[in-house]
Design a protein that fits this description.
Domain HTH lysR-type: 1-59
Number of domains: 3
Keywords: DNA-binding, Transcription, Transcription regulation
CATH superfamily of the largest domain: Periplasmic binding protein-like II
Helix content: 25-40%
Number of strands: 15
CATH topology of the largest domain: D-Maltodextrin-Binding Protein, domain 2
Number of helices: 10
Organism: Pseudomonas fluorescens
Protein name: HTH-type transcriptional regulator DmlR
CATH class of the largest domain: Alpha Beta
Family: Belongs to the LysR transcriptional regulatory family.
């Protein structure tokens, strides 16, 4: 067994959420992917996935191992690329696409630091909540949150986006504080429709996992709009921590169900295979891994 290959396959199964999807991506049969995961579990001495649940979910040990895999594989790729590129100049135009809120709050504040390090790079930052066509729009790198299912692209992990449940104090004063996930069925939940299964919120506490089918009178494909609706007291949302961090600090919103874990979303740098040969593109990927 090649340990690095098995770690890469394990990472893609986690990110795609499906053995069959990774098999199609690698152009192999699903049994081959399953065999690699089983061999990795035997090597580690324990299960990585909880196979008894309806959804493919990681065990606690699997979650920790996934985090270590991301770090190890990122360091390996950086070291390999550094050796291969030598003193290749990092300069020229770099077109980066990102979701609107994430780009504004998490990417834009970092660009000055990157440009101080690489002053000969010129960045064109394009913000949109829709996945743009990398080739058609001549995008060097797109940052995507959630499982990457596009074929023919390379998805490089940057980290994860932790989510929490948020509501405005005014909403909670009117409708009460939900004390357990099942109580959300009696609340106006605002869903972000660009995520798969956006109307099912997954919670975990100790060894117990819960899938809650939420209901509400409004949905949106915009994180910015959902934030404004939550602030106005319209309802409750399951959203990334970075979206509401300043609002929580200033007391404009409260976190709900803090005793429960929600599913974190993978954050990836997505690029066409040929862009991996671009020194400025890969320098930006390494920079994001360092700072996000």
């Amino acid at each position: 067994m090649d340990l690095f290959d098995s770690m890469r396959i394990f990472g893609r199964v986690v990110e795609r959420g499906s053995f069959s999807a990774v098999a199609r991506e690698l152009n192999v049969g699903q049994p081959a992917v399953s065999k690699q995961i089983r061999a990795l579990e035997q090597h580690l001495g324990g299960p990585l996935f909880a196979r008894s649940t309806r959804h493919l979910s990681l065990t606690d040990q699997g979650q920790r191992f996934y985090g270590h895999c991301q770090e190890i594989l990122a360091n390996l790729e950086t070291a390999t690329r550094s050796f291969a590129s030598g003193q290749e100049q990092i300069a020229g135009p770099l077109r980066v696409a990102a979701p609107v809120s994430y780009g504004r709050l998490c990417i834009a504040p970092l660009l000055g630091i990157f440009l101080q390090r690489y002053p000969d790079v010129r960045i064109d930052l394009r913000l949109s909540d829709h996945n743009e066509d990398l080739l058609k729009e001549n995008i060097d790198l797109a940052i995507r949150i959630g499982v990457v299912k596009s074929e023919g692209v390379v998805a490089m992990p940057l980290g994860t986006s932790t989510r929490r449940v948020y509501a405005a104090p005014a909403y909670l004063d009117r409708h009460g504080m939900p004390r357990e996930p099942g109580a959300l069925t009696g609340h106006n939940c605002i869903a972000f429709t660009l995520l798969e299964h956006y109307d099912i919120w997954h919670f975990k506490r100790d060894a117990k996992e819960l899938d809650i089918s939420i209901k509400g009178n409004i949905t949106s494909n915009s994180s910015e709009a959902i934030r404004e609706m939550v602030l106005s007291g319209l309802g409750i949302s399951l959203s990334p921590e970075w979206l509401f961090a300043a609002d929580v600090e200033q007391g404009r919103v409260s976190t709900v169900l803090d005793d429960y874990q929600t599913t974190a979303l993978p954050v990836s740098a997505v690029l066409s295979p040929e862009r991996r040969r671009s020194a400025r593109t890969m320098a930006f990927v390494d920079f994001l891994r360092e700072h996000l």
